[in-house]
TrEMBL record:
One of its GO terms (biological process) is fatty acid biosynthetic process. The gene is fabV. It comes from the Bacteria. Involved in the final reduction of the elongation cycle of fatty acid synthesis (FAS II). Catalyzes the reduction of a carbon-carbon double bond in an enoyl moiety that is covalently linked to an acyl carrier protein (ACP). This is Enoyl-[acyl-carrier-protein] reductase [NADH]. The lineage of its organism: Bacteria, Pseudomonadati, Bacteroidota, Sphingobacteriia, Sphingobacteriales. NAD(+) binds at residues 47-52, 73-74, 110-111, 138-139, 243, 272-274.
Amino acid sequence: MIIEPRMRGFICLTAHPDGCAQNVKNQIEYVKSKGAINGPKKVLVIGASTGFGLASRIAAAYGSDAATIGVFFEKAPSAGKTASPGWYNSAAFEKEAHAAGLYAKSVNGDAFSKEIKAETLALIKADLGQVDLVIYSLASPVRKHPDTEVLHRSTLKPIGGTYTNKTVDFHTGNVTEISIEPATEEDIANTVAVMGGEDWAMWIDALKTENLLANGATTVAYSYIGPALTEPVYRKGTIGRAKDDLEATAFTIADKLKDIDGKAYVSVNKALVTQASSAIPVIPLYISLLYKIMKEDGIHEGTIEQIQRLYAERLYTGGEVPVDEKGRIRIDDLEMREDVQAKVAKLWEEATTETLPAIGDLPGYRSDFLSLFGFEIDKVDYQKDANEVVEIESLA
Ligand code: NAD
Ligand code: NA
């Protein structure tokens, strides 16, 4: 069938299999073009189907010939309905990897559950023996706690007071003022339960108990900081509390891995258009101004450029891993550069519905958003009938 984007609010209900496949191919080509990395060999990626997790899987497979197991929660295609983009991405990734002689298998289900952890551990035991890198890249609005069975919902709210600032509807380009009511203590606890470090620690504990972590193994989870202007809703809001918890968890995990000479890091990444970030108020306006400036300065990166750099210039240089004063790896260095942030802050003051087309990169935002779903990708013939029924080889 001919597949077109069907939007509902911040989500797109359809995905294009050929567009998603082309996205994966483009990422593979990028990694190959940068040359070999003396990187990981057996990798578990939790949250491997989209965004930073997908890039982490691709950069490992094509940067250092790594065998990869990817865990994700995606929808298979069903009668008259396309699959979710992460399904098509993973199908394309496995197909490419297998053709290139690389081991790649996937586990589709709730990574927060005991069942999916057990299934993944059994697969590692059977096929890889041990892993030397574990990437934790989940982004989810909900988590059913495996012990209590309580369903926690994360929120994106300021703490301590109402936050009012500009935001943009990236579909229409309308810039308006938005006020977000402050979180309750319960909102904070729930957000920490979903996006904090507890589940990451549970994964690493389970892997270590079963002796599935190689000597010297590394684990990395992803965080974000961002500028002062988004602080109330991001870093000092509910999600920021969860990121504080995630960052603290890196230290407790690192302690537990000392006997196998293992390492645990949080990497602070750049703001990028993903399904998760487009739902956060204020952030899309910030990103559209940031993109404009970073593209003009020739320092714009997407997820694959970020992760290729994380491996090649931070984790696998052969030397010490460079970290900031809080022990975090920083690949948001270009976003956070003083000159870049000064320009964004100035444009932020000027941004209105009328000025945004000239001072911001909304077309870039929209096109990145659509490309998450496999639309508006070069080299894809959207007039051609697409077969929406695509299998993930290891799950078929
Ligand atoms: P994303 O939405 O693109 O990816 C989320 C992944 O998690 C997908 O593979 C999805 O299938 C998987 N997932 C979600 N719920 C799951 C579940 N219950 N069980 C199994 N898999 C599940 O998100 P992203 O933007 O790549 O975010 C990944 C991490 O990077 C997050 O910690 C996020 O905070 C962080 N980060 C994002 C940005 C950004 O701007 N997007 C910047 C810095 C850091
Ligand atoms: Na991800």
